[in-house]
Amino acid sequence: MRRVVFDTNVWVSALAFRGRVHELLDHAILRVFEVAISMDLLAETLRILGGRKFKFAPELLAAHEQEIRELCFMVYPAQRLQVIKADPTDDRVLECAVAAQADTIVSGDAHLLSLVKYQGIRILNPAAFLAELDGPNTGEPQAREAPALYKVKVKKKKPTKRF
């Protein structure tokens, strides 16, 4: 089975915006591939979702953390890499992929995508990886339709009055 590492930008996009990137999670639930994550990547994902831009509630963050932990297998990178000089935090993704012996990294990050491949690990953007999963020229997923993931009920705020 393929082993994949999602960059934090993929996790954030899938959880905050849903859309096409969210289909990656559906494929992972169906075990089309295995997903590896490290504590560094998990912590960064939760930090971004809980930060000023997205402001996820603590309960929602806790639910997402548990779901990610159940979906993924945790790896503990033994070495620190220094590959991406322009953004050293991107090295955490490479470390996770190397430790997991991953086949593919899925990322929207320009620094990582510019590598194309690292130690035999392909680096693809979400659209290219989804196109591979969809199969040649069919446009149809190879796996059956997946149930929606991460259905967590959150109370909506009442709209404020505009003057």
3D architecture notes:
Helix 1 packs across helix 3. The longest helix has 14 residues, at 58-71. The model is unreliable at 138-163 (pLDDT under 50). It contains seven helices and six strands. The termini are far apart. A hairpin with a 2-residue loop joins strand 5 and strand 6 (121-124). It has 163 residues and is of the alpha/beta class. The chain has a six-stranded mixed β-sheet. The radius of gyration is 17 Å and the shape is globular. It has one domain (3-134): Rossmann fold (3-Layer(aba) Sandwich).
- The named CATH superfamily: 5'-nuclease
Strand content: 5-15%
- Radius of gyration (CA) equals 17 Å
Number of domains: 1
Largest sheet properties: 6 strands, mixed
Per the CATH scheme, the topology name is: Rossmann fold
Mean pLDDT across every amino acid position: 86
State the strand order across the main sheet: 3-2-1-4-6-5
Distance between the termini: 57 Å
What is the fold's blueprint, element by element?
Layout: E1 3-6, H1 8-16, H2 22-29, E2 34-38, H3 39-50, H4 58-71, E3 73-75, H5 91-100, E4 104-106, H6 110-115, E5 117-118, E6 121-124, H7 126-134
Parallel strand pairs: 1-2, 1-4, 2-3, 4-6
Antiparallel strand pairs: 5-6
Helix pairs in contact: 1-2, 1-3, 3-4
Summarize the structure.
This protein has 163 residues and is an alpha/beta fold.
Descriptive keywords:
Rossmann fold, 163 residues, single chain, six-stranded mixed beta sheet, alpha/beta, 42% helix, 7 helices, 6 strands
